[in-house]
Amino acid sequence: xxxxxxxxxxxxxxxxxxxxxxxxxxxxxxxxxxxxxxxxxxxxxxxxxxxxxxxxxxxxxxxxxxxxxxxxxxxxxxxxxxxxxxxxxxxxxxxxxxxxxxxxxxxxxxxxxxxxxxxxxxxxxxxxxxxxxxxxxxxxxxxxxxxxxxxxxxxxxxxxxxxxxxxxxxxxxxxxx
Amino acid sequence: xxxxxxxxxxxxxxxxxxxxxxxxxxxxxxxxxxxxxxxxxxxxxxxxxxxxxxxxxxxxxxxxxxxxxxxxxxxxxxxxxxxxxxxxxxxxxxxxxxxxxxxxxxxxxxxxxxxxxxxxxxxxxxxxxxxxxxxxxxxxxxxxxxxxxxxxxxxxxxxxxxxxxxxxxxxxxxxxxxxxxxxxxxxxxxxxxxxxxxxxxxxxxxxxxxxxxxxxxxxxxxxxxxxxxxxxxxxxxxxxxxxxxxxxxxxxxxxxxxxxxxxxxxxxxxxxxxxxxxxxxxxxxxxxxxxxxxxxxxxxxxxxxxxxxxxxxxxxxxxxxxxxxxxxxxxxxxxxxxxxxxxxxxxxxxxxxxxxxxxxxxxxxxxxxxxxxxxxxxxxxxxxxxxxxxxxxxxxxxxxxxxxxxxxxxxxxx
Lengths: 177, 414
Description:
Chain A is mainly alpha-helical and 177 residues long. Chain A is built from 8 helices and 2 strands.
């Protein structure tokens, strides 16, 4: 005959087993239905992701309504850069072919911050073959201007070398004479 | 920290100019696994080491460890309660850890930790309850109301303290401790494995990692027990059992020799084999980690304790000298293991995946994972320990006839 103590311990063991069992049941209930159909993820997630509204357009999606910027942009050194990187997403601006809100346009010092996100020499991983970088304030010192100058005061933001090449052409012509 | 690139760049340019750094990828500038991830292996390590001391007494019958055996169990329990805290604090969305546990997958290591943690928590709780049953029964008899109910639950509603019942308890304790050793080893080995399994990081990705973590875990846990025992007893003006401390220190010496040898072996095998990323690891240890690894971890916190431990092993000395030295050695070794975790976790992230540059780590005070958070997390186990001490007395000698492997109680109620 088992003592009362032994009975209690058997009860403890049974309750541990029962609690783990209930735990496993609850776990089974909480696992989403489609989990594991294709792999260790929810199969429904594929459909849900496919249903996501596309928020970004392409550069071409902007050209129709902004012919002036399109022209400059396509001719300049930034032609490979996405308009939306600098301005924000298409879906915040246009819905079913109509403008619904303005996109923010950066001003003043914000423009310098924007340019340096890509063109800063301090970002050591930038390869000079892919992108030219400048060190601040060295770049402004080399041009002999005040350090308060923003990038767009010399560079056209959409075609960064536009003015500079034009200026070189003029000075070049002058030098020939 | 705000990962604003503009800010990060200015800190980098500062740090980078001091080092031989070249290319650090923008996403490597910031150390993502910071102090919370240092604490996580540190805390589980303390649990493991403390449990080893208890196991030596309850399973391997090392009688001299009796004075600290029960305390080590409580200590392990208090720290185990907080083992997942740093991890949860590190997560941006802590509640999502349950998602991971719902759908464990063999290709994702972290869920496994959740399960092993739960099992070790269960095993340790039952060991504590069985070890303390005689005390709890006594206390239950003296209390009333809600407390009486609590004591009834904690003693599995069995107030049987007969010789037979206690013998059964002893068997169960031995079984649970026997089970607890592999569980504890897996728990902490797993923590090492989680780092060792990161293929992308050349300082972590070695099969030695779990082994190194396991041995240093034992070192930190045993040191913590020695230090806590001496400090708490001294504060309470209680006697200190020198024989017990001597056994602890001997065990500690063994584990520390193993831990330190493996730590050094890892470095030497890296530099002898000159594996793929060896130049990076070498640059790391001699560059950004030069002082925290070579000076602090190796010279100050390993070589000095090694000399002291050798001295304690070979030279006969009075207890009044032996005990203070034990206190100092344990304190240094606790620091050693912390620095070792730091050098592995944070040090390992100071090199860029570009394999060409190093970054710097700036600990912050008031960050979710900052220094203040570290201090708070490390105090919580002591608060738990203090509260536990109200129900589970630390020391056997405070109450007469506490449990030992041989039941000695005469007045068995029924």
